[in-house]
Amino acid sequence: MQKTPMTAQGLKHLEDELRRLKTEERPAVIRAIAEARAHGDLSENAEYSAAREKQSFIEGRVLELEALISTAEVIDPSTLSGDRVQFSAFVTLVDEETDKEKTWQIVGEQEADIKTGRLSVGAPLAKALIGKEVGDTVSVPAPGGDRTYEILKVTYK
């Protein structure tokens, strides 16, 4: 079974979502189905259909979360150090074309959030950064042409 790299924070987020689905969402949708059944004819009951659809989504997500959690390999960034980019590193880059600096943390695919600077380990930029060191330059294909970045700083928190 292939392990899925993840930070402790990412694993906690998945566990919290799973707990919420099992303890809040699942019982609520079961009540909604029971209430919709009480209204009679199920073939023309939109509430019943919507509740069954939501139940299907919840059950599918529960299975997905359980699988992700069971294969999670938590990597603690505080145990890592050095100037080489690894999973969970905070990497400060400068775009060589615009001179804009940006810091990214390389995280698991389920944790990625571009708005908060959390870059999926499977993203082209993250793939280009893994194994590189401070001072190295990486080139990444982009829709408007290749972008080139210099690694200014690598930290682990």
TrEMBL record:
Keywords: DNA-binding, Elongation factor, Protein biosynthesis, Transcription, Transcription regulation
InterPro entries assigned to the protein according to its UniProt record, in alphabetical order: GreA/GreB_C_sf (IPR036953), TF_GreA/GreB_CS (IPR018151), Tscrpt_elong_fac_GreA (IPR006359), Tscrpt_elong_fac_GreA/B (IPR028624), Tscrpt_elong_fac_GreA/B_C (IPR001437), Tscrpt_elong_fac_GreA/B_fam (IPR023459), Tscrpt_elong_fac_GreA/B_N (IPR022691), Tscrpt_elong_fac_GreA/B_N_sf (IPR036805)
Coiled-coil spans in chain: none
GO molecular function term, any single one: RNA polymerase binding
Gene Ontology biological process terms in this record: DNA-templated transcription elongation; regulation of DNA-templated transcription elongation
Span of domain Transcription elongation factor GreA/GreB C-terminal: 82-156
Function comment: Necessary for efficient RNA polymerase transcription elongation past template-encoded arresting sites. The arresting sites in DNA have the property of trapping a certain fraction of elongating RNA polymerases that pass through, resulting in locked ternary complexes. Cleavage of the nascent transcript by cleavage factors such as GreA or GreB allows the resumption of elongation from the new 3'terminus. GreA releases sequences of 2 to 3 nucleotides.
Protein's recorded name: Transcription elongation factor GreA
